[in-house]
Amino acid sequence: MPIIAPSVLAADFGNLQRDIEMLNQSEAEWIHLDVMDGVFVPNISYGMPVIKTIDGLTDKVLDTHLMIVQPERYVKEFKEAGADILTVHYEACSHLHRTVQAIKDEGMKAGVALNPHTPVELLEDIIRDIDLLLIMSVNPGFGGQKFIRNTYEKLVRASELIDRKNAEVLIEIDGGVGLGNAEQLTQLGADVLVAGNSVFSAHNPLEIISELKNS
Ligand code: DX5
Ligand code: ZN
User: Fold this and answer.
1) At what angle do helices 16-25 and 48-55 cross, to 10 degrees?
2) Which residues line ligand 1 (CB under 6 A)?
3) Number of neighbouring beta carbons within 10 Å of residue 168
4) Confidence of residue 62 (pLDDT cuts 50, 70, 90)
5) Model pTM?
6) Surface-to-core class of residue 134, CB atoms within 10 Å of its CB (0-12 exposed, 13-18 middle, 19+ buried)
7) What is the pLDDT of residue 200?
8) How far apart are CA 89 and CA 70, in angstroms?
9) Residue 182, pLDDT score
10) DSSP3 helix / strand / coil % (the chain, rounded to 5)
11) CATH of residue 201
12) Of 34, 72, 106, 195, which one has the greatest count of Cβ atoms within 10 A?
């Protein structure tokens, strides 16, 4: 069964406590937090104070996805805010290996995210050092976008790379995930499904989370 990571980007920020309490009651094991800086992606979301607030409202794993340039500048701050997993973009790091080590030195799990155009093969020499591979299935920056179908093929190649390298890495799919593609993604080797709009715009989010979990 996949791990479900609802993305708070789609939550109602006027009722953040209510929405986090809903997630606490749900079968989701992780909470996905999207940090955007308006430079790496054309949108600005939220940062440490919001993450700290969420950390105080939940015991779930805080799965923090940094869509920011030079993420190495803030590793310690995100740890202090409550991040359990810190994912940086391949495209945003000149010294990815150093950044991954810095994340692990802070006691967090280290993830690397790939934009839709970035091939998984570029991770050949770092795959054994990371805990999570986040495959973007939309262009990062916004929730509610359409799933890019090339992700299926990319997922298969990611699984092959991880097997071939004997690496212990979870594969996470982020963007446009819902009941229409969750089953296929799970069958092809996805370990973690991020879901923003499909959860928070649903009439009954708890039910959708449960259905995604059982997909
Ligand atoms: C997009 C973010 C995603 C987003 C997913 O840049 O990385 O995590 O919140 O939202 P949905 O599931 O609505 O595509
Ligand atoms: Zn994300």
Assistant:
1) 50
2) 7, 9-10, 32, 34, 65, 138, 140-145, 174-177, 194-198
3) 10
4) very high
5) 0.98
6) buried
7) 98
8) 9
9) 98
10) 40, 20, 35
11) 3.20.20.70
12) 195
The count of structural domains within the chain is 1
- Is residue 59 among the annotated active site residues? no
Cα separation, 29 vs 59, in Å, equals 9
CB 84 within 8 A of CB 62: yes
Q: CB-based contacts of 55: which residues, under 8 Å, 6+ apart?
A: 62, 81, 82
Catalytic site includes residue 174? yes
The tens digit of pLDDT for each residue in 87-139 reads: 999 999 999 999 999 999 999 999 999 999 999 999 999 999 999 999 999 99
Question: Which structural domain, as residue segments, surrounds residue 199?
Answer: 3-213
Q: How is residue 30 written in tokens?
A: 């992780």
Average predicted confidence (pLDDT) for the chain: 98
Gap between the Cα atoms of 87 and 52, Å rounded: 17
Query: Could you tell me the two tokens for 186?
Result: 């799970």
Q: What one-letter code names the amino acid at 86?
A: L
